[in-house]
Amino acid sequence: MAVWWQSGIVYQVYPRSFMDANGDGVGDLAGITAKLNYLSWLGVDAVWISPIYPSPMADFGYDVADYTDIHPLFGTLADLDALLTRAHGLGLKVILDLVPNHTSNEHEWFREARSSRTNPKRDWYLWRDAQADGSPPNNWLAYFGGPAWTCMTQ
Length: 154
What we know:
20% of the residues are buried. The N and C termini lie far apart (54 Å). The protein is α/β, with parallel strands linked by helices. It has a 3-stranded parallel sheet. It contains 6 helices and 3 strands. It has a domain at 4-96: Transcription Regulator spoIIAA (2-Layer Sandwich), CATH 3.30.750.
């Protein structure tokens, strides 16, 4: 017998564009909650929610600044609790997208790692010194354009 995640239907929700419950033009947790009956009716087994954590939004939420809270654009922890209660009441599982390798430069781990070359969190990230002329370590390009590296002085 297969476990739910092997044969179940998982519906991914990108909150920003899914359903705006408060009329500010950005989808939110209350909007997702409002559509859970419909998702259940569709036969969905689980709802996978793209990142909703606090973020400077340089990468649309995938640059996480705090894994323990909700970005105000999407609501509050109470809104997440309400979503979970409703989903579980409908027999739906909820998966929160966890992206531990995409921390923002505003995340505490990154700030600590950047604070010194001997910080214990330093090896949580890839650091390369700039070339002698100050240019990036190599000519790699980021997927969205520009250099893949940002040169720092520490």
